[in-house]
Amino acid sequence: MAVDIESSLTDVLARCHELSMRQEIAEGEANTAIGYFPVYFPEEIVHAAGLRPHALLGGGNRIEVRYADARIGSFVCSICRSTTELGLNGSLKGLGGFFAQPICDAAKHMAGVWGRNFPQQDPQILALPQNVNSPAAIRYVYDEYQRLRGILAQKVGHDISDEAIRASLDVYNENRRLQRALYAIKREDPARLSSVEAYLLMRAGTRLRRERHSELLSAALRLLPERHVRPMDKPRVIFLGGFCEQPPLEMIETIEDVCSIVDDDLLIGQRWITEDVPVDGDPIWALAESYVQRSAASPVQYDARKPKEEMLMEMLRGARAEAAIITAAKFCEPGLDDQLALSRRLDAEKVPYLILEFEEKMTSFEQMAMQVETFAESLLFD
Predict the structure, then answer these.
(1) Would you say residue 184 lies in a domain?
(2) Which helix (H) or strand (E) segment is 213 a member of?
(3) Residue 124 is part of a domain; what is its CATH number?
(4) How do residues 203-256 score in pLDDT, each as one tens digit?
(5) Helix 162-188 and helix 210-223: axis angle, to 10°?
(6) Measured distance CA(78)–CA(56) in Å, rounded
C-alpha cells in the first residue's frame, strides 16, 4: 500500500514538474491564455471571463538568449530578457493578451517592449499602487480592475457578470486554502514535503485552470500523510528573494542538500492574498480591498502597516527557523534595496543569515554549495 501511495505522489509531482517547465502555449489555448508579468495579478477576473491566466516567469536556464539582447538592455534582470526571448522565439505566440505591472523600472517598460514587437497581443499596463496607505488606494485598485474587466469583456465578446466573478472568487478561495495547508506541512514537517516539491506543486498552478490545480493540491495533501519519511538533522532556514524572478530549481536543491527551507517567498503572487476574499457585495470591490488589506508584504510595494523587517521576524517565528537565507536576483533593485534593511534587523536580533545572489539562467552551483555548506555547519556546530 505504501509503495502505491508513494508512486501516486511521485506521479503527481512528476506532472507538476512537467507543467512547471512548460513555456509554450498549448495549441488548444491559443488566444485564451492571458499573460501577465509577476508579481501579482487579479487572476479571478481572467478566470471569470473563461480565459486562463498565464504567469510569465521567464525562461529559466533552459533557453539561450539569442534575440532579446537586440530588443532590451543586457543590464536588466534576467526575467525581463528571457521573457522577451520567449516572445521572440515563438514560444508565446498563442497569448491572447499581455499585462505588465510597474513593480520596478524594468518591468514597467515590458508593456512597451511587447507593444513594439507583438502589437497583436494588445499589451497593457495594470497600474497597481506602490503606496497602498493612501486613502484612495482601494478605489484606485477598483478602477483598474474594472478597466481590466472591460478589456477582457471586449476580448470575449460579452459582459463579465458579478455572478461569474463571485464564482471565480469561490474557486480561488478554495485554492488558497489548499495552498495554506501545503505550506503548513512544509513548515511543520519539511522531511515530508521538500521545498522543491512544494515549489513545483505551486508553480503548476501558473499553467492550469485553478480548478485543475486544486485537484492536484488536494491529491498531494491526501497522499502526503502516508508518505514514509525519516527525520533530518538539518538547520531550519527561511528563504527570501524569489518574489519575482525565480531561482533555478538547482539552487533550491543546493540549499536543501544541507538545510531545510521551512518558509519562503517563492511565487508570492500566487499567495499574495492571505485570507479568503468575501463573496458578498461587489466582487470587484472585495478583490480590490483584499489587495490592500489582506495581502502579503513584498519588496515591490510600500506598506507602512507591514514593515518588511517585521514580516521577516514573523516568518522566522512562525516557521521556528533558526536562520535566514536572503537572496536577490542580479540587477533587481527592489530585492537588493531590501537586503540592507533585512540584514540590519537580523544583526540586531542576532539571527544568523547568509546573503546570496542568483540569476535564473545560472547553471553552475559549486561555489554556492560551498557557501551554503559552510553556513549550515556554522549553525549545527556553533
Answers:
(1) no
(2) helix 210-223
(3) 3.40.50.11890
(4) 999 999 999 999 999 999 999 999 988 888 899 999 999 999 999 999 999 999
(5) 30
(6) 12
